[in-house]
Design a protein that fits this description.
Helix content is 37%, strand content 3%. The chain is mainly alpha-helical. The chain folds into 2 domains: 135 residues, Cytochrome Bc1 Complex, Chain D, domain 2 (Orthogonal Bundle); 109 residues, no CATH class. It has a two-stranded antiparallel sheet with strand order 1-2. A hairpin with a 2-residue loop joins strand 1 and strand 2. Helix 2 packs across helix 6, helix 4 crosses helix 6 and helix 10 crosses helix 12. 35% of the residues are buried.
């Protein structure tokens, strides 16, 4: 009986662990809806507090570098992305570059979306194109000098951005790989739950250990398995929070995380919430990056 080399086995494992959406298929709006929900697109690009029209532009997001407004991404051809090709859409998501060649500020988490499969991104665009177009101009960002100069984003990208699709780890099982893909590419949890360097880049050495300066200055908790994070939480506890916002202490999340639960994680399948929880519990336990209250 012929033997199979370890290298071939690794390749076969890698193929079986690629997310299902990575198969070569035409764009599907039905599949794209799940990508849309995982990415939290509605909450970011809609002013929910003021009952804004879906995807017509988001509320202000205050950062140390200025105040940003998520743009209109409805299918409107003038003010939204209705005139974009699939190639332009994928480039924006993976490279942070618009059809006009402008570089996007990294408050748009292309630093995570770059890891998404092309199939998922094409499916996402297909779903967005089924929604109602909104003829409303995007609100300009309020960013002072020198950050208002888009060319400053080039050196930022050189230092803080590594483009490229997520690759499965053949040493891990399919559940872990699904959770890693969802977390690192689509749900982009690390964008809020990881501290940043002085340039605003994600500090990968402190991955998921929390942030003292999250969206609008909110403190974002450590979600590694350290005692200062989710060390005492079970997989079921994490699944429960992602489903309804409740934590093991009987409290419920609010603020930005409340919106994530309402418009993103609660809409995921139970299997995907389980996969994310499994991935969280596998992370290296790191002390919280959020200073303790005095």
């Amino acid at each position: 009986m012929p033997t199979i080399s370890p290298g071939i086995i690794a390749v076969l494992l890698a193929v079986t662990l690629v997310p299902a959406s990575a198969a070569a298929q035409g764009p599907s709006a039905e599949r794209g809806k799940s990508v849309f929900d995982a990415g939290g697109c509605l909450a970011c690009h809609t002013d929910l507090k003021n009952k804004g029209e879906p995807l017509a532009g988001g509320p202000p997001l205050k950062t140390p570098f200025g105040t940003f407004y998520a743009p209109n991404i409805s299918p409107d051809r003038t003010h939204g992305i209705g005139g974009w090709t699939d190639v332009q859409f994928v480039r924006a998501m993976r490279e942070g570059v618009g059809p006009d060649g402008r570089h996007y500020y990294p408050v748009f988490p292309y630093t995570s979306y770059t890891k998404a499969t092309e199939q998922d991104l094409r499916d996402l665009k297909a779903y967005i194109m089924t929604l109602a177009p909104v003829a409303k101009p995007s609100r300009p960002h309020d960013v002072g000098f020198p950050f208002s100069i888009r060319l400053t984003l080039l050196p930022w990208k050189w230092l803080n951005f590594t483009p490229g699709e997520w690759k499965p780890d053949p040493s891990k099982d399919a559940v872990w790989n699904r959770g890693a893909y969802l977390t690192e590419a689509l749900t982009h949890c690390g964008e809020c739950h990881t501290p940043r360097n002085l340039m605003g880049g994600i500090d990968r050495k402190r991955w998921m250990s929390g942030s003292a300066d999250g969206p609008d200055g909110e403190k974002v908790p450590n979600i590694t398995p350290d005692a200062s994070g989710i060390g005492k939480w079970s997989v079921k506890d994490i699944e429960g929070l992602l489903s309804d916002g409740g934590n093991p202490d009987g409290d419920y999340v609010g603020g930005s995380m409340g919106e994530v639960v309402a418009h993103s994680s609660s809409k995921l399948s139970a299997a995907d919430r389980n996969a994310i929880a499994v991935y969280f519990k596998s992370l290296p336990a790191l002390p919280s990056a959020v200073p303790k209250k005095k």
